[in-house]
Amino acid sequence: MLINSPKNIALFNAILLALISGVILILISIYVESIDITIIMVIIAVIFISSFFLINFSISKFFHEKIDIIYKTIGEPQTTMKAEKKNKNSNDVLDLVNQVVLRWSEEKKQEINELKQMASYRREFLGNVSHELKTPVFNIQGYVDTLLEGGLEDKTINVKFLQKTQNSVNRMIALVEDLEEISKLESVNLELNVESFNLYELATEVIDFMEQKALLNKTKIIINPIASKSIKVLADIRRIRQVMINLIDNAIKYGKMDDPVVTISFYNFHDNYLIEIQDNGIGMPEENLVRVFERFYRTEESRSRDKGGMGLGLAIVKHIIEAHRQTISVRSNLGEGTTFSFTLKMA
């Protein structure tokens, strides 16, 4: 018998008291005066029953007072023990309390780990925002100081420095807009205006929009010639345009130096279309792929900053695709290029 509940403790002590009482009564009967065995049995039974109920009541009261304190401390409802006993059909009160406390302990450990992780993300986020803002702010300060110190009258530099100041301001505006966008995506459920549209036509529209940047980087953007020109999908066209612009922009940035090409492909994939945007650029090492969709993440800090990237575009893309209940993935080999793939539902 396991002594792990008030009832078992009371039973054990009641049997012990009854046995001791029985031995004493038998000894009295033998050495002092003769007592009828029936009377001895009745007395033993009375002692057993009365001691069992008294001990059980006292210990139960003591147990539950202490257990209630434990439950109040860990924030569990007082009915938890009764509910668990009913579910498990067990009298092992101490074991049940132990399980509740262990579960509470694990939950608290998990909460602490999550809070530490959030604090780490917050520090990293603030550090990244600070860094991104610091560069254009310092640039603007330098340009303005130069102009105030006489450069404003110098026609050889005044327009040039004002243009650089404007570029730095535009970079800050882009950062704030991206931060606002991703904050909106992460804080609430993204409202989508889902409609049927031709994805091939959208791709050609985005290629036209990116034409100037592609020309500056001597990059060719093509649609896979085997692709159908009638690709109807159900999605938010404005958001998917944003996805394609971000992915193509990313592909242009990291295209290879000689003959860079960005290829857009479409494939049937069950009830969805699989869209791939592939470049033949510098690629990424495998260990970086798992973090590529994180905010502000860059595979190579200096190179990404030189390209003007802030590490928010891919994070925004991921949120938009997941809001459509679809998936996005990346595969890459260092020196061989990168392919981003995402799915959209067929119309």
Topology:
Blueprint: H1 6-31, H2 37-74, H3 80-88, H4 93-148, H5 158-187, E1 194-198, H6 199-209, H7 211-216, E2 220-223, E3 232-236, H8 237-253, E4 261-269, E5 272-279, H9 286-289, H10 301-306, H11 313-323, E6 328-333, E7 337-346
Parallel strand pairs: 2-4
Antiparallel strand pairs: 1-3, 3-7, 4-5, 5-7, 6-7
Q: Short description, anyone?
A:
The chain is of the alpha+beta class. The chain has helices at residues 6-31, 37-74, 80-88, 93-148, 158-187, 199-209, 211-216, 237-253, 286-289, 301-306, 313-323; strands spanning 194-198, 220-223, 232-236, 261-269, 272-279, 328-333, 337-346. The longest helix has 56 residues, at 93-148.
- The level 1 CATH classification of the largest domain is Alpha Beta
Instruction: Give the termini separation.
Output: 67 Å
| Rg on CA atoms, Å | 37 Å
Unreliable stretches (pLDDT < 50, length at least 5) are 84-90, 301-306
Q: Which CATH-level-2 architecture of the largest domain?
A: 2-Layer Sandwich
* Percent range for β-strand residues: 5-15%
pLDDT average, as an integer? 80
Tags for this entry?
11 helices, Helix Hairpins, elongated, 7-stranded mixed β-sheet, Heat Shock Protein 90, 3 domains, 347 residues
Task: Please describe what this structure looks like.
The chain has 347 residues and is of the alpha+beta class. Helix content is 62%, strand content 14%. It folds into 3 domains: 6-91; 120-187, Signal transduction histidine kinase, dimerisation/phosphotransfer (DHp) domain (Helix Hairpins), CATH 1.10.287; 195-346, Histidine kinase-like ATPase, C-terminal domain (Heat Shock Protein 90, 2-Layer Sandwich), CATH 3.30.565. The chain is built from 11 helices and 7 strands. Strands 1, 2, 3, 4, 5, 6 and 7 form a 7-stranded mixed sheet that branches. α4 (93-148) packs antiparallel against α5 (158-187) and α5 (158-187) runs parallel beside α11 (313-323). The chain is elongated, with a radius of gyration of 37 Å. The model is unreliable at 84-90 and 301-306 (pLDDT under 50).
